[in-house]
């Protein structure tokens, strides 16, 4: 993909998709960590994966994803917007630098040398 340009809309979609996958993949561990912090007694001393197993045994596998919708809404929108804005600002910065170079070259070509009088 030499020279390929990513549109702002494509950057938004790619950012949303990648963050969705990452959030869904890691959310059960986040949920177990929160459960460990809120637990008391013997449950507090469980390892992360033991806590995940405990949650599944007590409440079923879907309990590992309790609250994932709210987390997806929050993080996916933020990540997608951030990537889209970054892509747009990168394009703007490159355009600005190219314009400045062109203006500087034009100014150098049209400059006449004046020898100061003493």
Structure description:
- It is a single chain.
- This protein has 118 residues and is mainly α.
User: SSE string, helix = H, strand = E?
Assistant: HHH
First-to-last CA distance: 59 Å
Q: By helix and strand content, what is the structural category? A: mainly alpha
**Total helical segments:** 3
Shape: elongated
% residues in beta strands: under 5%
Strands, total number: 0
- Integer average pLDDT: 85
Q: Calculate Rg over CA atoms.
A: 27 Å
Helix content: over 70%
Largest beta sheet, briefly? none
Q: Ranges with pLDDT <50 over ≥5 residues?
A: none
Structural topology:
Blueprint: H1 8-38, H2 48-59, H3 68-110
Helix pairs in contact: 1-2, 1-3
Question: Any descriptors?
Answer:
118 residues, mainly alpha, 73% helix
What's a quick, concise take on this entry?
The protein has helices at residues 8-38, 48-59, 68-110. It is mainly α and 118 residues long.
